[in-house]
Amino acid sequence: MKARISQNESKTISYDYDRSIVLSVGMIVKNEEKMLEACLEGLKPLLDALPSELVIVDTGSTDKTIEIAKRYTDKIFHFDWVNDFSAARNFGLEKCTGQWFMFLDADDHFADVGDMIEFFNNERIHKNYNNAYYITRNYTTMSFDEYFSFRAHRIARRTADLRFEGAIHEYFINFYQPAYYFESYAWHYGYAFESGEAYKEKAKRNYILLEKELAKDPDDLRTINHIIPTMVDMDDERRALIERALTLAGNSDDPVAFSIYFIAHKLYSEEGENQKALDALDSVIKKAKPDNAVLVEAHACKAEFLFNLGQYAEAEESCKNYLEYYKKYEDGKLEKSALGFVTSNFVIPENRDKMKTLYEFCADITELTNALNNNTDLSGFIERMNFELMTGYVAKTAEKNKDFPSLVLNYQNSDFFFLTIKNLLFGTLLYGAACARKLEDGQKSEIYMRYVSYSSLYVCNIYNPDLLNDAEISALPETHRFGYFMSAAQRELDAGNRLGYVKELKKALDSCKSMQNIIKFLIDEFSAAL
User: Fold this and answer.
1) What pTM value is reported for the model?
2) Distance CA 89, CA 319 (A)
3) Residue 307 in contact with residue 363, Cβ under 8 Å?
4) N or C: which end of the chain has fewer CB within 10 A?
5) Which domains does the chain have, with CATH numbers?
6) How far apart, in whole angstroms, are the C-alpha atoms of residue 443 and residue 431?
7) CA atoms of 89 and 291, how far apart (whole Å)
8) What is the pLDDT of residues 288-339, one digit of tens each?
9) Strands 108-110, 179-188: parallel, antiparallel or unpaired by DSSP?
10) 411 touches 401 (CB < 8 A)
11) Is the peptide bond before 178 cis (omega within 30 degrees of 0)?
12) Distance (Å, rounded) from C-alpha 517 to C-alpha 252?
């Protein structure tokens, strides 16, 4: 595989540039009247704050694109389109004269360029770097509430050999280290405005260009990385290409190999091949050096995937690893260049906070599962819970454990749940979840009766049953209505009123649809005892 970039040099390569211009911004456009003005308005604060130039290359617009562009620059050039983005980029690059070059698309919009202004206005800072990355946030919905991000390598110091390569998804070659990483990000709206059919048409166009590129070098991971997402309705061919790409990635030091693993993870997870999906993420973790920021993404993706599989203890461990690497990332101790090849959704604070919540959730589920398995005290766990957390943890634990009813029956003894009202609530939730599982005949009576006992006593402790009328009872949550009718039935039975007992059970049968199996069981049990 041919070498694509020169990343190892740390010196600045001289170039005959215009010293009065610090930054040249280059764009290629065609029929961009809807997005171009917003793009250039977002860019304007940067261009106004430092010696700069804006160079726009038009490839055949027939709308108001040129008219809009003229409001911002007089450096507008025409380029006959030749189905090659790098050719158009290189044409624009040749028209630029600044010390630094930056490129972007018409559907990019900067909300804040403050750190870029600071960087380029301070030669003592930017003289120490030769290229730079900013964050691209790609929105995928019209409501702009879903996106994926990556570190876009769009800025480089001008050198004699700097140029673009690639007919599509063009990129810099012959750039030099070290790199600077901006926290500024560009909103990219192109994906958000595409309909399903428009996406397919664009994918088809891109596939044709990329197929030609791949024919030149069938083992080029970068081209493979870009062509896979364009293979719409080509499942068999796409899968075969991914399998081959995984072999190539295993023998490559190109950071694009990490993207191949993430693509494979997504494909295998969609197809339900969970072990292969995990293997792909583990390949990232094994291949990456300890200071590689791609590990932030790998551990986060693994944590979410394991959580969705119900493997909470393993997900907890991956969350822990993620949070450790995030702290290193935050402290500037990780090398970030690989994030230019993979999505980097988990290096932003809001997603870190979500992962903290996931970590705590997994830790609590693991604690609950271990306590039930080992019959250890749950008092501390219950004390720090609220109703919503209890409900969620019990549901996830019941879902995970096939022998959940047995775990619940074997936990300590029934007196434990009578110690406090919160314990009663927890016992009610545990046995309610057990009732929803398929029970063996020998389990039904004890589990049902404990659920009845805990739920009725819990309701009597939080309401005064004597003060509730029919309208108020009907307004209670179903589980509380069930507890109310069970306590009323028990009072009738204790008073020797067997008819009243059955009457209350029938009220429960009409009012608590999801509890019908339990209520019918109680009626049958009572009838058999007569």
Assistant:
1) 0.80
2) 41
3) no
4) C
5) 23-188 (3.90.550.10), 196-363 (1.25.40.10), 367-529 (no CATH)
6) 11
7) 33
8) 999 999 999 999 999 999 999 989 999 999 999 999 999 999 999 999 989 8
9) antiparallel
10) no
11) yes
12) 60
